[in-house]
Amino acid sequence: MPAQKGIVQGQNLGTLVVHAETDSDIYILGKPLTVRISGTNKGSTSLVLQWPNSCVYDFAVTDSVGNEVYRLSRNAVCAQVITEVKIEPGKTRSYDGIWNQVDNAGMSARPGEYHLRAWLVGQESDNVVTVRLEDRSAETSTTTQNVSEFVSPAAAALLVMLGLIVVVVSHRRRSSWSPIISGYGNLLVASFSRLG
What we know:
Layout: E1 16-22, E2 26-28, E3 33-41, E4 47-51, E5 57-63, E6 68-71, H1 72-75, E7 83-87, E8 92-99, E9 112-120, E10 123-124, E11 129-134, H2 137-150, H3 153-172, H4 178-195
Parallel strand pairs: 2-11
Antiparallel strand pairs: 1-3, 3-8, 4-7, 5-6, 5-9, 9-10, 9-11
Helix pairs in contact: 3-4
């Protein structure tokens, strides 16, 4: 449940359906996770909701055993002004939040499964989103090591610079440079074909 409840004057919150979703189900450790919190007015009249601060949405992340790892409202600064949210009948209002994979103490999250619940003006989402954080640093370092076995850093830098020269000069279409650029381009192509 969020830290504060919404102020609703004469409105039926039962017509507000809140839904949460993320931009992926699996994340590499450290990659920000985008959370979309949407509220749909399923009623026949407009909903005009007031909230005691500028943070009209909230979300909480729990680990696989139900321990709260992160809550947006514990880590966000909200202006202390009454904020009005208006949703017309049949319409949806959405907000995007970010979880940078840190816990409430500022420590990095560990690999594993996490569950996310969300609120919009105090109304809890009708779903729980499950995401998985994976540590792929071992795969990344192996790939980097394998590439470095083929090309030394100095040779790679030279090839990149030659490639940039080819692109810039051929783009400007200076005919006096064409034979030189053509030779460097052939050298670049031959060098990369030996790598493959």
